[in-house]
Every structure is written in C-alpha cells, then in structure tokens.
Amino acid sequence: MQGGFRAERQEHDAGDGNPDRDHSPLSLSAGVLKRLGEQHSATLNVGRYQRAPAAEELYSFGPHEATQTFERGDLDLDEETALNVDIGLRRDRGRLRWSANAFYTQYEDFVVLRSVDEGLNADGSGTPVADGMADRVNEEGEFEVDGELLLQDYGAFDATFYGAEAEISFDLLTAPHRLTATLQGDYVRGELDDENEDLPRITPGRYGVGLAYEGSHWRASTNVLYVSEQTRTAPLEDETDAFTDLTAFLGYRIPVGEESALIYLRGENLLVEEIIRHSSFLRVAQPGRRLTTGVHAHF
C-alpha cells in the first residue's frame, strides 16, 4: 500500500497593471497493489488532485505562433480539482504477458482552451456576427473570416474523463534471440458535464500490432498503429479521418570501450498515409514517408 499528500503555494505577481493571483492546491492519493500468485497482480488507485492554473491560462492575450492561435486567458480561474479512480490487472512474468487498465476522473473547474463564435475582435470590440464557424483573427487580434490565427478562450468547466487501455505480448523466441509479438489498444472520452458536449482535441481510439527482435548485436521492430476517425468533436471543431501508421526500426550495437553505441535506421509513415492528429491545433497533414539514421551512444 502507498499514499501521498502534496500541498503547494503559487503566487503570480503580474505587474503592468494586471491583478495578482495566488492559489494553494492540495492533493491526496492512495493505492494498493495485490499479488495474485506468482505471475499476476491487481492495482487500485484513488485520489483527489488539485492543480493551480498556469500563468498563460490566467494572463494570455495574444498570438501563439507555434499553434497558430490567438489565446485569451481567464483571470477568474480557480484550482482545477480531480477525483480519480483507476484499476488494473496484469500478468508480468513468463512468455505471455498482458495488462489491462481502466480509469474514471471527475473534474471540477477543468481548464480547457476552446474556440468561440462571436464575430468580434479579440478585445471584444466590433459587431457580433455568429456564423457557426470558429472565429479567426490576425496577429493584432482583429476579426477576419480567413484570419491566420484561431481565436481561443481559456475557461473552467466541470468535466468527466473515462477510458481504458490494454496490451498483450508473447515471446515467440526467447534469449539470446528474443522475438516478441504485441497487441495493444486504448480509448478515452472527455465530456463537459453541464453543457453535455465533447471536449476538444481528444485522441480517438487507437489499436496496434507490433513485432520486435533483440539479439546480441541486432535490434529490429515494426509496428502498425490504426487510429480511428474522431467524430465526437467539440462545437466548432472539425472531425478527423482514420489513418494507419506503419513504422520500422533497425539497429546494430557495436562496442565502444567499456560501453556501446547503437547505429540505427528508423522509418515512419511508410504507407505514406495522410496523418492528421486530432490532438493537435494544427489540422494539417504530417510529413509523408520519413527515414532517419543516427548513432546513439552511452559514455
């Protein structure tokens, strides 16, 4: 059994005419791990966690070039509070190994960044024009239908998250030439309670299969990950299509004195799929087929 307690104090001395803000989050957690024979175990964790809002969530007002957004903070944000429970079962020994976990989290004042549809400038000026589309602005915060930046507001809402993940692996060959096959999958949902809406940028279900080899010098692996389409979207958010990502890795380990170095070649998106990740603000396709080579050394 294990438990934890954390108390924090966060103070923002903003300056430049902005109000100061301070928060004192408290967190408690407890967990238990129970062995079920020599190969199996079960886990249970519960906790009440608090997080103080970050400076950008409070004070932002301007362009964020990396995500191509114009962010507006909320000075009234309070501590984000989560009540969480997660359970797990696993087999961690032998040629056949597996794990399965599920979680449920209830949030109070969950901080989320989401689009708006007001047709106004970032400072609130202008004539309201709601057109069912997410507002866009230029770098000065002026409303433009085809503006470069997506206008985003920080806000706090009660929310619920739940999901599960599972993985199973089997050693087709054992040392000194280990060959392991793996199946895996995960799924998560995030919803706003009061508004009965899905949260933005929630990753859809993902399911994969892989094969990995490890010998005295050679290492190799290949993985196929299928990412489902995401149709459970927040208001003003676009859906994203499903895709399959095929990756591969080949490496050779050579001795360097008392240590070793790994020379490797890595391939990504080998099927040249159009990959648009739903968790990203930038709804543009990832680069196509990519090959990377390098040396990884320990000293």
Structure description:
By secondary structure, this protein is mainly beta. It has one domain: Beta Barrel (Maltoporin, Chain A), CATH 2.40.170. It is 2% helix and 57% strand. It has one helix and 18 strands. The strands form two sheets. It has a 16-stranded mixed β-sheet that branches. A two-stranded antiparallel sheet has the order 2-3. β2 and β3 form a beta hairpin. The longest helix has 5 residues. The protein is globular, with a radius of gyration of 24 Å.
Secondary structure elements and pairings:
Layout: E1 2-7, E2 10-12, E3 21-23, E4 26-36, E5 40-51, H1 55-59, E6 61-64, E7 69-72, E8 80-91, E9 96-115, E10 136-137, E11 149-173, E12 178-192, E13 197-198, E14 206-214, E15 218-227, E16 243-256, E17 259-268, E18 290-297
Parallel strand pairs: 7-11
Antiparallel strand pairs: 1-4, 2-3, 4-5, 5-8, 6-7, 8-9, 9-11, 10-11, 11-12, 12-13, 12-14, 14-15, 15-16, 16-17, 17-18
Q: What's the quick description here?
A:
This protein is mainly β.
